[in-house]
Amino acid sequence: MRFSTVVATVAVAALPALGANFDVTVGASNGFTFTPSSISGAVAGDTVTFTFVSRNHTATTTTFTNPCPPPAGGEGPGGFDTGFQNAVGGVQPVSVVTLADSGTHFVSCRQAAGAHCQAGMVLVINPTEDQSLAAFTQHARNDPIQTDRL
Ligand SMILES: [Cu+2]
Question: Which regions span the lipid bilayer (predicted)?
Fold first, then answer.
């Protein structure tokens, strides 16, 4: 029997520097939650991987002061919107967002006309002293639903 040696040459393409990834679980324990609810040190090119584990939620950027509900498509430059991700029935959808900038972003859920948002379903990316998770959460809980966004 004759054996031959196969030498595989793997071409390594020049890849852009890969950013860090931050994992966020959406709806853990059937709650209206992002876990963790705060991410710090995220920069442009980093990714956030949202895993939706219950109900039907979105992860959508919104405003700090009037967050509920987030606008479809996400708020402002660098904003994002995963769209509705339905975990009812056991499938756990995953949505990966690449951050376009290194700024502060306020994230909530668009479901139920802002009711999930008002229940405190919030996430802050790169919070600051003034624009903290606690302050954003308070705005969400106090926010009259923005009917012009429905
Ligand atoms: Cu939701």
Answer: none
